[in-house]
Amino acid sequence: MIHRPLIPLLLLSSMSITSMYAEDIIALDKIQVEANTAILEERRDHSIAKRIISGTELTQYGDLNALEMLKRTPGVTIPEGRGQKGSPGKGYTVVMVDGEETSTGSKRRGNPLEQITSDMIERIEVMTNGSAEYTAESMGGIVNIVLKKPKAQGVTTAKITGGAYDGDVPSQTLFVQREGKSGNLAYLVNLNASDNRQEDTSSTLRVGVSNEQRNIVTRYQSLGVTTKLIYTPSSKDKYSFDGSLTKNNSKTDIDVASTTRTVANNDRSDGTMLWSAIKGEHHLSGSELLDWKVKFHESTNTGESGSAQLLPTSSVSHQDDKSLFRVLGAESSYSVAKDNHFIKMGIELKGLHQTDEVRRDVNGTDVTTAGDTISMNQTKGAFYVQDEISFGESFVVTPGLRYETIRRNYGATGNIDYLAPSLHVLARLTPNDNLRASVAKTVKLPRLDELSTSLDSTFDRNDIRHPDLTGNANLTEEKALSYELRLEHFFEDKGIVSVGGFYRDIDDKIEKMTVVEGGRYVMRPYNSGQGSLWGVELELKKSLSSYIEGLGTFANATIQNSSITNSATGFKRPIKQTSNYLYNIGIDHTLPSYKLTYGTAYRYVGGYDDPLDENGVSQVQKGYGTLDMYLNKRLNETFKVQLNWKNITHATIETTSKTSTETQINRDNSYSSFLLTLEGRW
Description:
Number of domains: 1
Helix content: under 10%
Strand content: over 45%
CATH architecture: Beta Barrel
Distance between the termini: 40 Å
Number of helices: 5
Radius of gyration: 25 Å
CATH topology: Maltoporin, Chain A
CATH superfamily: TonB-dependent receptor, beta-barrel domain
Structural class: mainly beta
Number of strands: 34
Oligomer: single chain
């Protein structure tokens, strides 16, 4: 357990300032050094503020999938599906895979980001404010996960990881990839399989009533194949196919015990995710480019949940659920460079369909309602134009305008139309210093599952922290005007230090709130009022080789504050579950003569103190920290081995919830895991 007084000392020793990514210190292969140099140069020269995390950096701390990696990134908020956990940051963040939006959460089942392993990812791009080229639903910024594309002439990569959670709970993953080229066709095929388990504990103290202990056993299995084909018949034309198919299943058993109650809960699910796209690029001339894409995505899930209560009375509950989410769309863009302008315009069409079906019974009696089966459809059309205007070598202005129209049918039909203008300014003060400013109008549309009236009943005790989950068919879009200002300095040794501020003015803020209906606690999203969010982001990435050869450090911090006012009552409070600060800090050291790199990173998430809301519920969460360590050793030109020790601090999240009638203290405990990875490349 790391001692809390050491954390500020470590923070000060690294200058306590931020970076969305850590420096790849390994630098054993020339190609890796060149790639990291190119990433920093791209960030410095890009007209729109962008942070880039390279693929080599993504795997060094043992994160198994995209969800784990994004939770490590400050400023990014990722819902995790069932429950309230997430990565606190500046509100919502759109997540894209190769430029395509993906649903990042469901009230019932897992997150699709869990099905993207870290080995499939080339890099992650983080854009902190919206631009016309991307969706207007860029509240809190945009994260674009760029998957690997075929580059090598003929290379096979294999990677096997085995480990244990809490000392004796096994887990293992396998990744195999082949990439190559045959004539005008380049290809990449990879296979990934995983079998990961966790055994956690939690407790719920209902002050003056009971103290319940929970043992939570989870097993997640996944098998997926991804294919990328790129056909280049000429220097002017290129066609590509991206496809992936993933099957997964999960099992969770929760045993609840106290002096007054004994319950055994279980949850089983099976899912399939299909992701496919066909793309084309056509160079009409030396300064004109036309590209297009046709896409089809589908995700299906079936689940079964049950609960058997033995004390204080015997009761058996059961639920079956099915869900289908489907996307069919097409898009095209035209780009032209002329004089000091780079103009890009495009059009997008997309249709969404979601179906939820739930059936439940209690003690053999069917209690399903009509609202538990729902079918929802959405069609979306968009047009945008963006111009990157250069004024000499030192000043770039990027104005843009995006128009989107949406039609939804989910029992009632609704139309939404909006314009989303944006403006980004880059001033190159010196060759190594940038001043950036941006303003963008953005929206956050309710996800279809947030509109669905299908109810997901809790099979644990129904209380403040374990409510039933449902949507809100009356939910409207959230709108915001976001401002950002950032100063960046790039060191000669390829490091960076920056400081930036942000302010967001929000209309119709969407928040999840818990109310009592029919004697049960129910959580659903509401438009809670007019809000604002403001803060400061700091970052540092710096080589310390002038002091100790091969030593480097990175750190980041986000400090923020918020408020929201209920439009009807004037009631004012902070935005729910918004931490006042969070930071990451780490050190890496390379011993070139031994081909060895090791490092450590500490992540701290500050707590929050939410006062009584409009429904008489208050919540306080204590801050918590996670310490990770790794060691990477190259054995020879073909093989390397890596050790990871994750969550050394055994982070515990403690949350106190209160109503006028009860106080409840929840402690969610997690434990460390140890991973050993062998990777070969030939």
